[in-house]
Amino acid sequence: MSKEDKLSLPAAILINLNIMLGAGVFINTVKLSKWAGVLGCLMYPLIGLLMLPLIISIAKLVNVYPDAGFYGYGAKAIHPFVGFFSSWAYFTGKLASAMLMIHVSLSLVHQIVPIVQDIPVIVLDLVVLFTFILLNMLNVQTGGRIQVWFMSLKIIPIFFSIFAGLYLFSWRNYALVNMHWEGVPSTLPLVLYAATGFEAACSLSCKIKDAHRNGPLAIFISYGIMIAIAFTYQLAFYGAMGNSLAALQEYTGIFPLLLGTLMPGYTALATTIQAVLYLAIAASALGSGYGILFSNPWNLYAMARYGHICFQSTFTYLNRYGLPIWCIITEGVLCTLYLLVTQGDTLSLQQTSALACSIAYTVSVVALISLVFWRRTVNIQCWIPILALFNCLILIGSCVRNFILFGIHPLLLFTTLLVLGVIMFMYTWKSRVIQTNS
């Protein structure tokens, strides 16, 4: 691929932000208010600080191995199986997030567009998924332009909420009695889910111009922007609505509540604005889903290129645009599986994605520790990866805790995919050993 066909730094930042600033921020509005109250908005900077050593560690790996991705970090520093397990966990689990974004988007559209209300939401999900799969078979530059379009739409509901929330803001909603410390642990995986997406630069590093420099920059810039926007959004929304948010059952009630308070007596206008905001949120969610499907196939491609996937020649085949079409098709198959098994349950899909990301982060950090302490080939303050590993263990523990509390079935599905991946690695590895010895 020529340098002109690669992604620029702004394009890489947009892809990260499109994934991070998806429906997760809106989905979390009610849950954070219900579980943590006043402390809900503080969960974003808390996760921001908690994950900072991790962000620095991942950015360092992109700088040292700009063409490696999650597979390369573990494989180069420790063993090919470690790299495979990290990349396979991320590839399979992150698709739960892509399907969640598509389902949330189409659920909103289903509510406000009469012409599609007779069509089951799952059917709409599959139509959009199929469309995205086809779009992802076009060239990288086309994908970058689609990201710009999605980003321009998703800022509408976010900034409307911030400005309306600040206008209605009341410090009485931030009384000490509304601090729910006992709910803080349960919010960590949800906020982690909203904060993930920066790692898309790892999957796409081989497609970014000057990846050793622009890859880390894309991670730092997009992460900082996302944390600042999400914190301000939750702060303003809770400051305006207070415990009324906690009384809601689902995030779909947040805008009727906000608009009813902002413009009482203007029901028709409020309904129109609500429809526009919901459509923008739907576009926001679609942007995140598309961003994941756009970046994720390169993880499977990397595993296939190193011979750890059955039918290696099939999965390493590139079309005339230089894109791995069978890896993209595999994404569609796994997304369909997640949709059919979970029926679009938001919490199940959120937690699956958060756990998958936490596993990939943990393996990457362990790889960096190996490079720093044993191989001594990477120059970084030694406390950074150690603290990052501690952060990762907290995140994995929070994810597992939520699975135990809210339902183990999604974890069983994800675990099954992990086991199938391990079996496939062992089979391909054994075949290579036999070929070498014969």
The low-confidence parts are none
Percent of sequence in beta strands: under 5%
* Overall CATH architecture: Up-down Bundle
CATH class: Mainly Alpha
Look up the CATH topology: Amino acid/polyamine transporter I
Task: Please give a structural write-up.
The protein is mainly α and 438 residues long. The chain has 20 helices and no strands.
Topology:
Elements (H helix, E strand, L loop, with lengths): L8 H12 L3 H13 L6 H8 L1 H13 L4 H9 L2 H33 L8 H15 L4 H28 L16 H12 L4 H4 L7 H31 L1 H4 L7 H9 L4 H29 L1 H9 L6 H4 L9 H18 L3 H29 L8 H24 L2 H29 L1
Helix pairs in contact: 1-8, 1-11, 1-14, 2-9, 3-9, 3-11, 4-11, 4-18, 4-19, 5-6, 5-15, 5-18, 6-7, 6-14, 6-15, 6-17, 6-18, 6-20, 7-17, 8-11, 8-14, 9-18, 9-19, 13-14, 15-17, 18-19, 18-20
Brief descriptors of the model:
single chain; 438 residues; mainly alpha; Amino acid/polyamine transporter I; 20 helices; 76% helix; 0% strand
Short account of what is shown:
The protein is mainly α and 438 residues long.
